[in-house]
Design a protein that fits this description.
This protein is α+β, with helices and mostly antiparallel strands. It folds into two domains: 78 residues, Glutaredoxin; 99 residues, no CATH class. 48% of the residues lie in helices and 9% in strands. Strands 2-1-3-4 form a four-stranded mixed sheet, covered by helices on one side. Helix 1 links the parallel strand 1 and strand 2. Helix 1 runs parallel beside helix 3 and helix 4 packs antiparallel against helix 8. It starts with a strand and ends in a 15-residue tail after the last helix. 20% of the residues are buried.
């Protein structure tokens, strides 16, 4: 049975779980805390510490870099889902880079602001520490911190509801999705019923 090792609130993991759900195959989800990646480290033989990873029998599948689609393509091939038709491979490659750069960031930020609803209180501190190291101190303390650094607005929900950063990030993601839909039209590679970009 395929096992998906993940953080339950990670957008990276949600994509893989949607692919598995779409396939109809039996699979098992193993949720690990953000503070303990030892299972991932052990299964990947100390080659990877991110999530998600897939364990399929003796095989362990994980991404090679930020832009790879190793897990999705493995599942697509193994389960015969047809999510990556060869006839439009070039278009998909171009669109994927665009999704990674222009859609994923704003959507990740929108997901991150709800961390208190998505993880136990015991994980809040390490999560905040990670985000503050990446995006600046005080990003979770008050809306006034936003005037110092727009990138801090990722975590404080009041920043998103009271600051223009919210509408800019949300509208940029919506614009990017609309652009992709306009570019691809009704190509069969991304129908809305599949867990692809149009879903």
């Amino acid at each position: 049975m395929i096992e998906l090792i993940q953080f339950p609130c990670s957008p990276f993991c949600i994509v893989q779980s949607r692919i598995l759900e779409f396939s109809g195959t039996n699979f098992k989800i193993i949720n690990i805390p953000n503070t303990d990646r030892s299972l991932v480290w052990r299964l990947t033989k100390q080659r990877y510490y991110g999530v998600p990873i897939i364990r399929d029998g003796k095989s362990v599948i994980f991404e090679l870099n930020d832009d790879s689609q190793v897990i999705a393509k493995y599942l697509d091939s193994k389960l015969g889902l047809g999510l990556f038709p060869w006839g439009v491979e070039g278009v998909q490659s171009i669109i994927w880079k665009y999704i990674e750069n222009d859609i994923e960031g704003p959507c990740f930020r929108l997901n991150d602001i709800w961390y208190k609803d998505q993880m136990p209180a015991s994980e809040w501190l390490p999560f905040l520490r990670h985000k503050e190291r990446k995006f600046g101190r005080g990003c979770s303390s008050s809306p006034s911190a936003c005037s110092l650094s727009k990138k801090c607005c990722w975590i404080n929900p009041s920043c998103w509801t009271n600051d223009r950063g919210s509408s800019i990030s949300t509208s940029s993601a919506c614009w990017a999705i609309s652009s992709i839909r306009a570019t691809t039209g009704s190509r069969p590679s991304i129908p809305a019923s599949r867990p692809g970009i149009a879903a």
